[in-house]
Amino acid sequence: MIVKDGVMINGLHPKMQIANCKVAVIYAKRGKEFRLTGCVEYRGAKSKSLHPKGRACDWGVHCFDGEADMKDVRDEIDNALGPDYDVILELKGPESHIHGEYDPSNPKVI
Question: What average pLDDT does the segment 85-110 reach?
């Protein structure tokens, strides 16, 4: 796992530590570099953000080939983590990433 400069992992919720391990395995199976690009350092994030609470991480997608590939890996992560997590592909140019958060109070609609 590569951690982007400035990313803080101290205070990360145990459920997100587990999520990072699962995501790292998914990246490795695809032969891709797993990069943690955001975590608890988002002090100025929106008030509803779970980053400062240690319950959200951002995973880099620069290593994937196009939007379809990024969506495919997002779906695989979503399936691996299960219903207590929200997994979102955020397309923001060079800052694009997959956002994952542990949020059991926000059940997914089936």
Answer: 87
pLDDT at 4 over 50: yes
Segments in the chain forming alpha helices (H): 14-29, 66-81
Quote the pLDDT of residue 110: 44
Exposure b/e, 55-72, CB count within 10 A at least 16 = b: bbbbbbbeebeeeeebee
Calculate the alpha carbon distances from 21 to 25, 31, 46, 55, 67 in Å.
Answer: 6, 15, 26, 14, 23
Mean pLDDT of 71-80: 97
Residue 20 neighbours by CB under 8 Å, 6+ apart: 1, 12, 36, 57
Token pair of 34 as six digits: 């797993």
Structural domain span for residue 22: 2-102
Number of domains making up the chain: 1
**What percentage of residues in the chain have a pLDDT greater than 70?**
91
64-69-70 Cα angle (round to 5): 70
Domain membership flag for residue 109 = no
